[in-house]
Amino acid sequence: MKSRTSTVRLAAIVGAIGVAVGSVAIGLTPATAEPAVTAVANTAINNDTVWHDTQGNPIKAQGGNVLKVGPTYYWVGTAMDPKGSAPVAPAKAVNLYKSTDLENWEFVRALVTQWDNDLDDDGTADVPNAQSPVPGGDPAGDLTAGKWLGRPQLARHPDGRFILTLEVGGNRTSTAGGLGNATGFFESTTGIEGEFTYLQKQYVDVTSSDPDGLTRGDGSLYVDGANAYLVYVGDSKTWRNVEGVRVAPLSADWRTILPHTHDDTVAEYEAPAITKIGSTYYMFASKKRYWDGTDTYYRTSTDPTNWTGRTWTKMTTNPVKEGSGNDLVRSYGTQFEQVFPVTSTDGTTTSYLYNGDRYSQFFGGKDPAPAGIGRNAWYPVTFDAAGVPTLHGATQVDVNAAAGTLSWNPVANGGFGQGAPFETYIPALADSATYDPATAYRFVPRWIVSGTTAAVKVQERTDAADDRQLKFQGATAFSASVAQEVGLERGSYRISFKMKGSGGFNDAYLFVKNHGVGEQHATVNTAANSWTTVSLDFDVSSEKVRFGFYANGAAGKWLSLDDVVITKR
């Protein structure tokens, strides 16, 4: 892992149902075992890496949310692994982590764990329901391995209880392949780190005319004072995710789903969640793209229960990434889960983080999967004076939790993927069947590659462990460039980077343009066998800048680049 460089400080511009199954106590179970690494304290949120907890174990927490209790942030998510060739998917767990700085996470416990009903697939239950590892049993089999267990959401009721909702297997089989899932309600009266008891599962939209109700898809909990709402995708009885986005209030004790108050009929969005900024409610959601990363969409309202006529808008990203093939503009290879506040100790400053899931570990098969490393990626979200949100694709995010501020290098992936094994990078392709590991190294995340693309690659540095560089080199004559475009406030900046190379190019330079004062260059055509730092000062009057590197040379000429950083002067 590289040491963190100084960055431009950018703070957000804001002031800112049922079928009872009995009470089943869920016991403590360790996280799914995977090889641990030597624990090293983080000094930033390191995106595009595999995250590890304070014990060095891989963090497994997908599809969940972050809840602040006092000075501590708690993060709940599902531990899930690919099925592979096994007859039944590995047992899932709902893991709880905690942190005071949002950069280092301690594993607390598994709040809920599926149990082995028949992992041998021989028709005989390995552990009878009544004797399952879930204390008290699981007579309905909701927590059996192989069933869905996802979208965990933690909330604190005003009376002090902690509520956990889950999307659980509902023991229904639809006529056309729907999942048949229900909402499982769990609660703890002994604190967020205490034992959670399974209260019941409940289907949504139960009415006198339709006592069976519908099954549900991806969803979240939203708390607004003493009121709580389930924000979810309603599945039909014949297919999944075709009933649109709905908002349903919970009962006063937050144990029962009441009839929905809002219903969309457009079935394009999933994983909806609500965040309140000032007096405005934002509903964010992802698009339906299987395991793939998706653009994040949002709309606003003054009433969390009424979104009628509120248009969905695609969230702006910074840096902007256009093009195709290696395009990562889809929320930087993630799916939206949550936008949550980071508020200062004195309550005067608030910034916002985007909690994103990445499902690269499910790459393969017929469904597309995103590029990038790691199961999770958290990015800054800023809101302009008009309330328009922007998602910043920062590779590293420095969180000052006490001050409520975030800092990051505007250059996304300025270190070209440091902090993770090179061979784990995969390109974002529309069809996983076209993935070719022999050419995957040419994929340069967050950068637009033009010209002789075969001459541009990311490779391991031989002089630094666990680090990479960008390299221009061709077997024949070549002309190529890499570029990014980012939004910057008006002002004076400096871009710096490290370089070494053969020299002797026809032309080779850093370029900065579209920033309001013409195009500026800094040469990188000098022979250098050791790393040399180069910098260029520039002023921004257009609130954006396009920058990158260009090299035109004969066969065998080479140029290596690393540590590209923009700082404010």
Automatic annotation (TrEMBL):
Q: Does the keyword Nucleotidyltransferase apply?
A: no
**Entry's SUPFAM superfamilies?**
Arabinanase/levansucrase/invertase (SSF75005), Galactose-binding domain-like (SSF49785)
Q: Which residues are listed as membrane-spanning? A: none
What InterPro entries would the database entry show? Answer: Galactose-bd-like_sf, Glyco_hydro_43, Glyco_hydro_beta-prop_sf
Record region (Disordered): 119-146
Q: Which UniProt keywords apply?
A: Glycosidase, Hydrolase
| Claim: Heme is one of the keywords in the record | no
What's the family? Belongs to the glycosyl hydrolase 43 family.
BP terms from Gene Ontology: carbohydrate metabolic process
Write out the GO MF terms.
hydrolase activity, hydrolyzing O-glycosyl compounds
What protein name does the entry list? Beta-xylosidase
Determine the domain of life of the protein's source: Bacteria
What species is given as this protein's source?
Answer: Agromyces aureus
